[in-house]
Amino acid sequence: MPTLVTMSSPSVFVTILAVALAVVIGTLAPQAEAARAFFVFGDSLVDNGNNNYLVTYARADAPPYGIDYPTHRPTGRFSNGLNIPDLISEALGSEPTLPYLSPQLNGQRLLVGANFASAGIGILNDTGIQFANILRIFQQLELFRLYQLRLSSLIGPSAAQQRVNSALVLITLGGNDFVNNYFLTPVTARRLQFTIPAFSSYLISEYRKVLMRLYELGARRVLVTGTGPLGCVPAELAMRSINGECAVEPQQAARIFNPELVQMLRGLNQELGSDVFVGVNTMEMQNDFIHNPQAYGFVTSKLACCGQGPYNGVGLCTIASNLCPNRDIYAFWDPFHPSTLAPQAEAARAFFVFGDSLVDNGNNNYLVTYARADAPPYGIDYPTHRPTGRFSNGLNIPDLISEALGSETTLPYLSPELNGQRLLVGANFASAGIGILNDTGIQFANIIRIFKQLELFQLYQLRLSALIGPAAAQQRVNSALVLITLGGNDFVNNYFLAPITARRLQFTIPAFSSYLISEYRKILMRLYELGARRVLVTGTGPLGCVPAELAMRSINGECAVEPQQAARIFNPELVQMLRGLNQELGSDVFVGVNTMEMQNDFIHNPQAYGFVTSKLACCGQGPYNGVGLCTIASNLCPNRDIYAFWDPFHPTERANRIIVRTILSGSDKYMNPMNLSTIMIMDSKN
């Protein structure tokens, strides 16, 4: 049976990024960055610029298209900025796929995949004839076959076939067959030939042939989008609406077509004996923000940002069109296509972060402490190329979870910018150097210990209540996603800090681990009392394998024995404790994140993930660059992407991306009892 991704609570195209996408790859182990290509087929909703190279009327290569794209220039995308394939690539941590017709698509760029989509096309060959020269769907599939020949020449036939078989594929068809064919004028050839239900059934039968050909060409993981609510786009409102209501006939068509598509995909998957095709219910996704735009920060879902005539819904967007000054508050960019923000809208869920330096977004910048990351070269690969307080060369785990969810990054709670509407996003309370225990990190002086972080969470809720009211604030906290990362410092910056420590004299390693678990339980219960209902709880990484421990204790480059023993004891005990807590609470509140297994993958086989080393830190000094922290005087590698560790303790941004991808889609080896994509699906139904 295909997975049908749909949302009844507020959540929109971000579902494609963080849920449908993760469902497709959810059963796979974490993969190297270069492991999966991405191919795109379809119409203007997903065209990245192929029509720029054709003599056609279906073009988006002139301003104001692309006004919010990174280059602020038109690219051929029918958007003010990024489109759905761009955002999927971004969520995967990969570069955007190039249009197949682009002369830049050659050499190593072929490994990323390709975008074959062409604005104006449909399932049927007679759809879009008014646009002249466009790449009809079977021509796109023929180009896919030619692409594979080019890829075979580059990497060999066997590797090329494997790359295609393991690729992610997105196909978007159907909308044009209705709006640019059946409903194009009051009387059309297809209207005379078919009733709406009969036409829908005919489209489904033809779409099935397209999908089977895609399967024959090697596609094995395919996201298949339905149509949006066709009668509600500004173009249809301008042409057919009565009093601003969605146009009746196109809406009827969409309501018939989408369930039939799901049924057809079910049958195909049963016939093939595998969930090759995943149905993506874009109608329900768009219905959310069309019928409740204010919940997503939009002022309107009826009026296009760029256009002319009623609802700005006549023609396409041109330099002479009406143009709104702020695209972020419009659901539709032009008469047919969503704005860049609409695919990412996720107003439903806040995100809160607690813990140590692995997840601190800059709180320690506001404290008098030795645990700081506010000087270069920290932040060298952050978008601003400046230090932010993150213990990373760039983005950290909370940033990447926010990115995967399509939401903005949570600010540090101590940041003066955290006020007003920014409070709705959530907050990051983490502070580098802290642990489960209060005596962990005393050498760092002033840090926000965990129960202090929880006090600040309580104060945050009072501020949120003042902004949106107590009931709405409580609901926002209850429905939030929470991440907590603790435990590593209790070992490396407490128990193992010196050959003899107070905690070593007090406890054996197993007894200390059990003590930590009992104290961690109290923290999690307090978090629950404060309203948290979905909490990702990370274990420790492989403590003996970080460059700092290699520098201090390693024999012949092997992971240090005692810290590894501690991690192997602590992590299973944490999972067991979380199970018990969930049983006691009668709900899967706490989700165990096995970061030890996640990091073991690339620590013990770095080359499979594109790293040259997992022993040597990119930035540091001494053996393995593992002594002290990263400073302006440290050794610094020129390419952070080929190092698993940024400094003696913390992963690089690229390693963090692998970890977050596994949080989203990992099996129960890594995520217990479920991964984040499953959480998002389950919670969307509540």
Automatic annotation (TrEMBL):
Which family does the record claim for this protein?
A: Belongs to the 'GDSL' lipolytic enzyme family.
* Source taxon at top rank: Eukaryota
Q: Which residues form the signal peptide?
A: 1-34
Task: Cite the entry's keywords alphabetically.
Answer: Hydrolase, Lipid degradation, Lipid metabolism, Signal
- The answer on whether this UniProt entry bears the keyword Lipid metabolism reads yes
What is the recorded name of this protein? SGNH hydrolase-type esterase domain-containing protein
> Would you kindly state one Gene Ontology biological process term found in this protein's UniProt entry?
lipid catabolic process
* InterPro entries to which the protein is assigned, alphabetical: GDSL, GDSL_Est/Lipase, SGNH_hydro_sf, SGNH_plant_lipase-like
Lineage of the native species?
A: Eukaryota, Viridiplantae, Streptophyta, Embryophyta, Tracheophyta
In its keyword annotation, does this UniProt entry include Hydrolase?
yes
